[in-house]
Design goal:
This protein has about 375 residues and is α/β, with parallel strands linked by helices. The protein is built from 11 helices and 9 strands. GO terms for molecular function: phosphoric diester hydrolase activity.
Length: about 375
């Protein structure tokens, strides 16, 4: 298998056009988190359509890997009942039915494709636009839609969902890395993709097999330390000691630096990550907004400056308040991942100091969405939870 992956890598390198490499890097990296889940149902073709319309630099998304080896664009390890509805079994008497609540790793593609994941609006995102009956997409189907919708060299920040603490809940890092390599080689899209993961062993393997693929080290204060005895990852003030289950066996306290921020950045640099993607707000924070008393930023200027000194970019998640946007601008980040790309775009336009990617062509994008978006035969009522 490894020889196949290396051959795919070689073919991808020789056929890639150097003129296209990171053409969108000239823009401020406005990333629509899960497409832009504050505005449209997450990780679906409609969310990516509206991300393109709103002029994102990067479409951010997540991948699950099914039992039969298909990459599904979906964030959660399982099928969340607040997001998806069962519409019927693939075959009568299927022991896995109902599929809602089951883990992606235990479902086949055909089982996943029966789900309506476009009819439920989340309480936390009351302005979500629904597209009733929308099915989840494979990674290939997502790339086909974007190719139809725009000629722009839009970027992709794609997370492999590997559970670092409970390995039986997802497919392995090795399975994910092999699967993404096959698809990226098929589409020759290495230049436009960043591989991100909280589970850093996936990034180590990715760099080994596909050195031209950029990697982003995801982390927050629950993943950078060893688990607490109760199974919790802890936070900045209460945490375990020793190597984290998420950081490829690294113990950040073995790296130099007077602060956690410096040490975790140096840990990321040690696995040759191209950028870091930390949580904006610390788990120990007593508030959600920088203007409120008790707010604690997890990403800070020390972290950004250390990363830049080592040649790493910084693109935090998930900023959903304009005071957080302003805070991140002030400390000098290179991009922002947000559930509200339209709102971040408006602020960036108002400031007028950041180069922005072009807005998408609405008619073309909507036409391609109508062509590529798949629907279940039955649809929910669209009232959500």
């Amino acid at each position: 298998m490894r020889s196949i992956a290396v051959l795919s890598l070689f073919l991808g390198v020789i056929s890639a056009s150097p003129m296209k490499r990171w053409a969108y890097s000239k823009y401020f990296d406005l990333q629509g988190h899960r497409g832009g889940r504050g505005e449209t149902i997450e990780n679906t073709l409609p969310s990516f359509a509206w991300g393109l319309i709103n002029g994102v630099t990067t479409l951010e998304m997540d991948l699950g890997l099914t039992k039969d080896g298909h990459l599904i664009v979906w964030h959660d390890e399982n099928i969340d009942p607040t997001k998806c509805i069962d519409t019927g079994a693939v075959e009568e008497g299927d022991p896995m039915y109902p599929y809602v609540g089951k883990y992606i790793a235990n479902l086949t593609l055909s089982q996943v494709k029966t789900l309506d994941c476009g009819s439920l609006r989340l309480d936390g995102f009351p302005l979500q636009e629904l597209y009733a009956g929308t099915k989840l997409s494979t990674l290939s189907e997502m790339f086909d839609f974007v190719s139809c919708a725009t000629d722009e060299q839009v970027l992709f920040n794609i997370e492999t969902k590997v559970d670092g603490d409970y390995h039986n809940l997802t497919r392995s890092a090795e399975d994910f890395v092999k699967a993404i390599g096959d698809i990226y080689a098929q589409y020759n899209i290495w230049d436009r993709v960043t591989h991100q993961s909280f589970e850093w062993s996936a990034l180590v393997l990715s760099k080994e097999l596909y050195p031209q693929l950029r990697t982003s080290a995801l982390f927050d204060d629950s993943t950078i330390y060893k688990q607490l005895p109760n199974g919790s990852g802890g936070n900045l003030t209460t945490h375990g000691t020793g190597p984290s289950n998420w950081l490829a066996g690294l113990d950040i306290d073995t790296f130099p630096g007077d602060t956690i921020a410096e040490r975790v950045v140096r840990a990321a640099a040690s696995i040759n990550a191209d950028l870091i993607s930390p949580s904006v707000t610390a788990g120990a924070s007593l508030a959600v907004d920088p203007a409120e008393e008790g707010w604690i930023g997890f990403v800070n200027k020390t972290m950004v400056d250390t990363a830049h000194s080592l040649g790493l970019q910084v693109k935090p998640w998930t900023a959903n308040r304009k005071n957080l946007f302003e805070y991140l601008f002030d400390i000098g980040v290179d991009g922002i991942i947000t559930d509200y790309p339209h709102e971040l775009r408006r602020l960036l336009e108002h400031k007028g100091t950041y180069p922005l990617a072009p807005l998408g062509e609405v008619d073309r994008i909507m036409g391609c969405l109508a062509k590529h978006n798949q629907h279940t035969e039955t649809k929910g009522d669209g009232k959500g939870y």
